[in-house]
Specification:
27% of the residues lie in helices and 24% in strands. The protein has 372 residues and is an alpha/beta fold. The chain has two domains: 279 residues, Metallo-beta-lactamase, Chain A (4-Layer Sandwich), CATH 3.60.15.10; 52 residues, no CATH class.
Length: 372
């Protein structure tokens, strides 16, 4: 009897271990692309088979937001970092990221720039001994089971650094994503003429939906099903522009925006795409954006050294209030927000305290219920 029980327990433990390994393998056999809400700026985290790549890090003040977000996703090391171009709304927070995580490689354009933001990033790269890679069209790199291929820039633009943006296409199974930083029509023309495959399921809309990007020739080659716009709520530039939204609609792309949806997460199993690694802003799929414009903030901050700067958003007064948190999407909700009823219980947490403390921890207010 003892022998039988011992054999049974051993068999049970082996079965349990096998199920755990299978579950871990199943969950890791996915590509997850996170479009991080950093206001008027860009930042994306790509995850595949336990490997991580960060693309841009928003303005300097968003550095801690990006760091906290990466930690919440279990990042301990970045296999690749892409600093698309030297503008502060893309690389402002990068020095803080590089100081918080080991980084194997950083892909960045080889350009001359003397701003403090860019210089600080270069200093950290040098101090940490991070391998810097200059982008070359056609070069491909592996991130887990996914592959990304450089499609731009062909050349450097001494007058407009947006056209120096590192552009690449990411492929996982039958699914594809394209990222082009702030590439404007000049670089887009070079990308179209490069001969590289451009058709992609998901397009990270270049230059925050400006009219200087997303040309018809480029969109006709990409043919995106989904378009993700990373843009700050009420930004002083009026991004995204109605003309760009119309062009995306004409091409048949469904639009999602960080100013309206917050952090946007897309998961691929190599065949199909689903929105959310569990949920976006509370539960299920993110709601596509149908509004055609964002109110312009007439008191925007302008620019520093010719670089776009994020419009500052006032932080609500610090009083103790009850909130419901989504620990997966890092969104703050009012208890009566409709998103709360859609939220998975495992992601739901009640918090009583100051919203400023939550924001400092990397959480951001829901754009539906607007907690204060």
């Amino acid at each position: 009897m003892k022998s039988f029980m011992k054999s049974f327990l051993v068999a049970f433990l082996i079965c349990l271990l096998s199920m755990t390994v299978f579950a871990d393998t199943a969950s890791s056999n996915k590509l997850i692309v996170n479009y991080i809400d950093v206001g008027q700026g860009d930042s994306e985290l790509i995850e595949c088979n336990g490997k991580f790549m960060l693309v841009d890090a928003g303005e300097r003040e968003q550095g801690s937001v990006v760091v906290n977000y990466l930690k919440s996703r279990g990042v301990e090391k970045l296999d690749y970092v892409v600093a698309t171009h030297p503008h502060s709304d893309h690389i402002g927070g990068m020095a803080e990221v590089l100081n918080n995580f080991p980084v194997d490689n950083i892909i960045m354009p080889k350009v001359n720039n003397t701003t403090a933001t860019y210089t600080n990033m270069l200093k950290v790269i040098q101090q940490k001994g991070i391998k810097a890679i200059e982008p070359k069209i056609g070069n491909s790199y592996k991130l887990g089971d996914s592959t990304f291929t450089i499609v731009g820039p062909k050349k450097y633009d001494t007058k407009n650094m947006n056209n120096d943006s590192v552009a690449f296409r990411l492929v996982y199974g039958n699914n594809s994503f394209i990222f082009c930083g702030d590439a404007e029509t000049a670089e887009e023309s070079d990308i179209v003429a490069s001969g590289q495959t451009l058709k992609s399921d998901v397009y990270k809309v270049s230059h925050h939906g400006s009219t200087t990007s997303s040309s018809s020739a480029f969109l006709n080659m990409v043919q995106p099903k989904y378009a993700i716009i990373e843009v700050g709520e009420g930004n002083s530039y009026g991004h995204p522009k109605e003309k760009t939204l119309d062009a995306l609609s004409k091409i048949g792309a469904t639009v999602y925006r960080t100013d309206l949806n917050g952090n946007i997460i897309i998961t691929s199993d190599g065949k199909t795409l689903s929105f959310g690694d569990g949920s976006v802003d509370g539960g299920g799929d993110a709601t596509p954006c149908t509004s055609q414009s964002v109110p312009t903030n007439t008191t925007g901050a302008g620019s520093v050294n010719g670089f776009g700067t994020a419009t500052s958003t006032s932080v609500p007064q610090s009083v103790n209030i009850t909130y419901v948190l989504n620990t997966n999407t890092h969104k703050i909700h009012k208890p009566n927000c409709r998103s709360v009823s859609q939220m998975k219980e495992k992601n739901k947490k009640t918090y009583v305290g100051k919203i400023a403390d939550l924001i400092s921890q990397g959480y951001s207010p829901c754009k539906i219920c607007n907690p204060a």
